[in-house]
Amino acid sequence: MPEPSSNTSTLTFNLTRRPWIPVLYLDGRQSELSLRGVFQQAHELRRLVGDLPTQEFALLRLLLAVAHDALDGPRDSEQWADLWADEECFAAVGPYLEKHRERFDLLHPQAPFFQVAQLRTLKDEVFSLNRIVADVPNGDPFFSSRMPTVERLGFAEAARWVIHAHAYDTSGIKTGAAGDDRAKGGKVYPLGVGWAGTLGGVLAEGETLRETLLLNLIAADTPGLRSMAEDRPAWRREPCEPGAAKGRRPSGLRDLYTWQTRRLRLHSDAEGVHGVVLGYGDPLTPHNMHDREPMTAWRRSLAQEKKRGEALVYLPREHDPARAAWRGLAALIADRVEAGQGAEAAPYLRPGILEWIARLVTERVLPRGYLIRARVIGPVYGTQQSVIDEIVDDHVTMAVALLHQQDREYAQQAIDAVADAEAAVTVLGDLATDLARAAGTEPEGPRGTARETGFAALDDPYRTWLQGLAAADDPYAQRADWQQDVYRHVIRLGQKLLTSAGDTAWAGRTVPTKTGSLWLNSALAETWFRSRLSKALSHPFPPDRQPADSAPAPDSSPGVPA
Hints:
This protein is α+β, with helices and mostly antiparallel strands. The chain has helices at residues 35-40, 53-71, 77-85, 93-99, 155-168, 209-215, 253-257, 302-308, 329-333, 336-339, 352-362, 409-439, 444-469, 475-500, 502-507, 522-536, and strands spanning 3-4, 11-12, 21-25, 30-33, 45-48, 174-175, 187-188, 201-205, 262-269, 272-280, 298-300, 314-316, 348-349, 371-382, 387-399, 509-513, 516-520. The strands form seven sheets. The protein has a three-stranded antiparallel β-sheet. Strands 8-14-15 form a three-stranded antiparallel β-sheet.
């Protein structure tokens, strides 16, 4: 329930002291805390727990903006090291929040938190809360028990969805607000999704929320990260008006993490929130924002360079929901110098947050064996970005030694081990294709299923192997162990395919090849499979030391397609 303001009868719900942020304690308990409470208890918390993973990402960025502004830093890695060593590192946050408490009132009559007080449409319409609650989007509901509509929210949950809307709101035609000169016929045509929705979000998680906040708290002197003296968060700026702030770009992380991509106004009574007015705010174009946004990987876009007439264009590297996080490890840990070829610009850049942690381990501020979880979070939009179809949420646990800038052998072996898995799964897919051809059936379905099965079987083994890589004395020997492990897993999967292929594949049939035609059956497919797999994994076993379930295979087979 909201409280009456001390000065008037106006209701108030102040985020600095009212519980509204869901958290998970180290002992497994869940609760909700105020902003002040989160920072006071950060050392006792495992992490935030949002209604959706994307909400957790948005809330963490809000906390980072608070911490950066309250601490006015960190200035450099030395000040960061002092914070890391100080159990009371967030002591300044309490007085800071007290100083700015009025701007954190969700129901403030003149400056409600992340809203525009007098926002209205020309017809004074008030819309359903479906417009900001992302698990009940307009159109087809997204995995929700609240179908088909959201009639009312408590103030705590409403606050979370306001933050989420600025970060991830969908695109599409929106009702124009009075005073917004972009409105045509009462409508504003699509201007894109919320800023975080353009990213393939990446954050570094430690053992506690305190460590997570500090790991993502990037120093102001970080090379390649633009920050201006006037950088400040939304609550230290004048309240927004309808329409866009003309020509403004983020002045630094505090500004970016609280960027007002939407104009919002909640409609409420003493019992909670029952409606919303939602329109476009300050759009951001993602091209070449890599010097401002650290929580995503970036990819070079040759198409955009040609279209825009610019020499170099980087765009956020979005997540593929069909690809586990470990399979994209190179995008997270590959040094940008390695990614490029000589003077050629790198085809992709790892997230700035991991560049920052690489600096901390290289400067020996963090020990080599310290483990982080590189967590990836991002939405997949559908139908012209008007709905959220899917949300990616995955992680890779690894030692920070893999990010060391002068000791790259471990990182390279980790990346090459992913390539081993990719190559082995490709061979498994080839076996499925050959068995289908031998049986006279369509190969695409079996091939895709075999690849999915292969990656699923290697998922846990790779994550376990990666977690222990930095502790190994010899990363090359560790990679050789991995290749043997992959061989064993994939051989077993291949045997299952061969067993289930049936009598038709065993009998075989004539198939065309590049050099003519040959009789293909499951026996020949197995010979090819073993040969290809051994070659793909650099012949992990000597001829006299084949694993128990494997027979020696020739390096090549007559008629193997080129």
